[in-house]
Amino acid sequence: MVSLATFTKDAVPVTDFDPYAEEVLIDPYPYYEQLREAGPVVLLERYGAYALGRHDEVHAVLSDAHTFCSGAGVGLTNFNTEKPWRKPSIILEADPPHHARTRKVVARVLSPASIGRLRETFEAEADALVDKIIQMGQFDAAKDFSEAYPLKVFADAVGLPAEGRENLLPYGDMVFNGFGPMNERFTSRLAKAEESVKWINNVCQRENLTPNGLGADLYKAADAGEITHEEAGMLVRTLLSAGLDTTVFTLCNAMLCFAKYPDQYEVLRENPQLARQAIEEVIRFEPTFHSFYRTTTKPVEVAGVEMDANQKICVFVGSANRDPRRWSDPDKFDVSRKATGHIGFGTGIHGCAGQMMARLEGDILLRAFAKKVRSIELMGEPVRHYNNTVRGFKQIPARVVAL
Question: Residue-wise over 10-34: b if at least 16 C-beta within 10 A, else e?
């Protein structure tokens, strides 16, 4: 049984818990249980940040953007007192009223009405990919399936050139590591990312995007005066950092869940229409995002704990999604569950702008999979991909049997 070392100071539990330790990244849930039971608010002593692990408190903080801002960074680094390692995102790390201007443009480009035009193409690509892995029999469910699909359909949708897409995942990996401490995991990714950053900056330019893609739509918003052309390029870059790794890892987590819980795959296989509901349960049960930060804008009390202004708070999404105060039998993977209310995409004004795109990709691919595949089983131990903020895999040896 995992046991966090805690003591109480000024009526607040204090812990030596390190959410970025490798053993935590492998299996954080026993630690999260300890964190939730220690109290609604716990001080992470080594990082000087408060931690929230219960659903209600996490939801409340994410829903109040005026008291708990993102402009000081959504990672551990406090932009009010420390220099950011990169230029802050103009949507993710912007507060009202500035946030509304860029969010409005991105929300429209990624709206159901906008991305609905992609469905037919996405379905054809999903069918082709599932046919391919069936023919392979044994395959890597991480690279051959979970990476292959978004790298094709999402990158095409944005309007990227086919050559050089291998730079996309290292770039996102660097960005998500940057939301944690400046540890070796981050610095090593940063040191290797020079070529990827160069490629990303180049393909985000208008002349390198296809004329009818989502990236071009952002530049059209700039033509209309809603944003500047420089901001359009920055928002394309945000699409690429936020829209790929997270979907890849969500699909990895889905494949592993169905391999580990064949009874739940059987439920989906018998009713592929449950694909959308199943992907929501995957995101609740094994969320890709596990934590990020907010910063207090004024003195505030959270669950009886008084906090000063400019205080970093870590919200543990992965813990909130397993909080027994919110979910019955939270550690059970159950695709028949109505997982509405999970915080896997965040919530409030900074809820994931691309969540409809992620849901579309997941729904279509899982549905195609369930219609053609009788079973999936592991053929070896999955190899975890370590990142300070998101959880997924770089290798999942698997075998499928066709219907």
Answer: eebbbbebbbbeeebbeebbebbbb
Q: How far is CA 272 from the centre of its chain?
A: 24
Return the CATH number at 107: 1.10.630.10
Tell me the average pLDDT across 319-347. Answer: 97
Write out the two tokens for 182. Answer: 């400046």
- Residue 28 to residue 22: CA distance in whole angstroms: 10
Site of tokens 């739940």: 264
**Number of domains forming the structure of the chain:** 1
As a whole number of angstroms, the distance between CA 186 and CA 88 comes to 17
Q: Tens of pLDDT along 366-392?
A: 999 999 999 999 999 999 999 999 999
Would you call 304 exposed, middle or buried from its count of C-beta atoms within 10 A (0-12, 13-18, 19+)? exposed
Alpha helices of 350-392 — where are they, by DSSP H? 355-372
**CB contact at 8 A, 103 and 91:** yes
Task: Give domain status of residue 17, yes or no.
Answer: no
Give the domain extent around 320: 31-402
Collapsing DSSP to helix, strand or coil, 194 comes out as: helix
Cis status of the peptide bond prior to 97, with omega within 30 of 0: yes
Alpha carbon of residue 171 to chain centroid: 14
